Amino acid sequence: MNVNLTKFSLADTTPQQVTGVLKTTGSTDADVLFAAKEEFGSTFATQRFQGMGLLIVGVLSSLTIIMAIIGIPVALFGFWMWRKGKRNVAIVEAAYRDYLAASGSANVRIAS
Question: Are 59 and 67 in contact (CB under 8 A)?
């Protein structure tokens, strides 16, 4: 999935939301479905990327005692956000695979 730094969200996703996004394309073409999945999932790839960035910044800030006051909470928030993004990306990928299998496009190469 592509990381789009203009998108920021703390929201979670569900398999039903992913399926809804794929259904709204009105297509069974694998390329169209893949593009819809990538567009929808880019928000959660960004969550993962930004969470890792905050985790690194927080850890580096915590190397000094004075900055540890700020660095520890930033690192914890970054870790939480990274795990949340990782979980959301996994949900998007699993729902995409399930949708392709249910729509009869299972023999199509699943790119990720």
Answer: no
What distance in Å separates the CA atoms of residue 67 and residue 50, rounded to the nearest whole number? 20
Residue 3 has what pLDDT? 65
Domain of residue 80, residue span? 15-102
- What is the residue whose two structure tokens read 């790839």? 45
Question: What whole-number distance in Å separates Cα of residue 101 and Cα of residue 22?
Answer: 13
Residue 8 in domain = no
* Radius of gyration of the CA atoms of the chain, in A: 17
pTM reported for the whole predicted model: 0.78
Encode 34-68: b = buried (16+ Cβ within 10 Å), e = exposed: bebbbebbbbbbbbbbbbbebbeebeebbeeeeee
Q: How many domains does the chain have?
A: 1
Mean per-residue pLDDT for 83-88?
94
